[in-house]
């Protein structure tokens, strides 16, 4: 394989231990192209300001055509692209924050329409209510042409991405690891769907494993890509509150979904509201505050339902999120029959069953 694409060299230099994005800026300013860094002599590398002897040693030790070929193969297989902050197609919202990533690695693509983006974040150990709220808000925003940004974590993040995708909209996942690594691993299928219908992005080099220290920096990208940040559920020491704080520093609007005062997962959101965050009960609360003119809502095609299916659907709308057994008791219909009809309503695309047999509408 011939290594002709300079981005292969950029990924190579980024993968070297000790070479962060600030070092890459200095090296690129000096050598202009990644291949020139690969070909540079030891003395030339030592002349670059801020590049110490250890980094020079690591660069020289990692010069390998075999490594370049492995990187090139991975880039081709996963269809990875890289944006420089100076590129015309770099996300404008992100470019305008303090300390935007010099390099943004990506699976999928970012479109001009993604300038109208809203971040939805929250607890990993979200309650059924939190997952329902994230899914519902994301879906309704996506149907109005708003791109949903989140971090692909368990709980609220996952529900937000799924809500956008199920509504036929776009969503962007920002990772705290390389875009070639799925974290959490159980979100593998979700990651592929996001890459196909939106974008999976990271400032971290290929092969970078998730690390607790990466996520606060990752959060500035989530808020930076967005016009506003919606916090659905969060404890008082939640990482979502870090995202909210970064959003305020970036001049973004912060929204919070109110929750039960007895639920610790709502304590962070309720505190944000006390401190001036916009209370959210529906998508209009978000759109009006951001002054975003939405596209026309994608209406569902009329779906024929039997009398019993209609009763079940209407009760879920009224009581959601609701447990399967509670639904059966409320309707006084045998649970096995309800379960069978729930499957039909899922096939018709009207409801979703969350883990724990919790039911919500789409």
Automatic annotation (TrEMBL):
GO terms for biological process: DNA-mediated transformation. Residues 83-290 form the Smf/DprA SLOG domain. SUPFAM superfamilies: MCP/YpsA-like, RuvA domain 2-like. Residues 304-357 form the DprA winged helix domain. PANTHER family: PROTEIN SMF. Belongs to the DprA/Smf family. This is DNA processing protein. The lineage of its organism: Bacteria, Bacillati, Bacillota, Clostridia, Peptostreptococcales.
